[in-house]
Amino acid sequence: MQIHDKPHEHSHSYGAYILVWLALMALTAITVAVAGMDIGRFTVATALIIASFKAYLVLSVFMHLRSETKTFVVFVIVALLFLGISFVLLFSDYSFQ
Amino acid sequence: MSSTTHTTTAHVHRDDVGSRMGMWLFLFTELLLFGGMFLLYSVYRFQYADAFHLAAKELNTIMGAFNTAVLLTSSLTMALAIVAIQRDQKDLSILLQMITIFLALFFLVNKYFEWTAKFHHGIYPGSEELLLKSSGEILFFGLYYVMTGLHGIHVIVGMFLIAVMTRMTRKGIITKDSYVRLENAGLYWHLVDIIWIFLFPLFYLIT
């Protein structure tokens, strides 16, 4: 097997991206619709869950994490983990003041 | 690199994976830059929940949703521009990159109208009308201007970056066999999109 330093392989098809775009647009419509409903405390949680799912779609498909090596995925997870730790530490400090 | 049995020399002294990795590392610093602001937002949101709800009513949800759609579409055209260059469709790639720049500009024009509408209502940092409001509302608008403003700067930077890529594509520097620069510009652009994906619900949809 020859090592070939060529650009990494994607599906090279337009279709998958257009599908993801449609999903992102639909999720935007859903998040606006849900915000109009009165579901009390769950409003923020729902909005953040939808936003996270949208971010996941962008990261994995548009930003090609799907087809990158595991190293990239681990890097991203570690970065997000540290941001998460900042939130946990901040709120644990804030709640006990 | 050692197994250069094939005749092409174009791949020597090039490390596309390393290049993309470098871009991702840079994006992590961006994550922390915006992450710090999201931290600030979350604490004040927690502290002044009612004031934030009240203040968010001033924002135009339709305009925000429309701008979200514009930015998502620009992300699509950027991703498609990369597919086009992979398929050696140079003109199509240039067209898609130009559409991306146009959509970015469109986003900024909308933002301009949104901000000036706020200014006309007397809501801008330090304005008399804003200072009469409760501290929670002042904080909401402070965060709104800083976070959407910083995001707007990123949109401007992204536009210039993509414009440089368009020029490189036209000149034949970015080609079917060498397009990592375009990919990296795309990564930056998608990050700008992701940040907006979170800014939109947190500012426009909490009424």
What is the gist of this entry?
Chain A is an all-alpha fold and 97 residues long.
Lay out the secondary structure:
The complex is a heterodimer of chains A (97) and B (207).
Chain A: H1 15-36, H2 42-62, H3 70-95
Helix pairs in contact in A: 1-2
Chain B: H1 16-47, H2 49-56, H3 61-86, H4 90-120, H5 128-131, H6 135-171, H7 180-204
How would you portray this structure in words?
The complex is a heterodimer of chains A (97) and B (207). By secondary structure, chain A is mainly alpha-helical. Chain A is built from three helices and no strands. The longest helix of chain A is centred in the last third of the chain and has 26 residues, at 70-95. Mean pLDDT of chain A is 86; it is low at 1-7. The termini of chain B are far apart. Residues 1-5 of chain B have low confidence and may be disordered. Chain B is an all-alpha fold and 207 residues long. Chain B has a single domain (16-204), classed as Cytochrome c oxidase, subunit III, four-helix bundle (Four Helix Bundle (Hemerythrin (Met), subunit A), Up-down Bundle), CATH 1.20.120. Chain B is built from seven helices and no strands. The longest helix of chain B has 37 residues, at 135-171. The interface between A and B is large, with 50 and 56 residues.
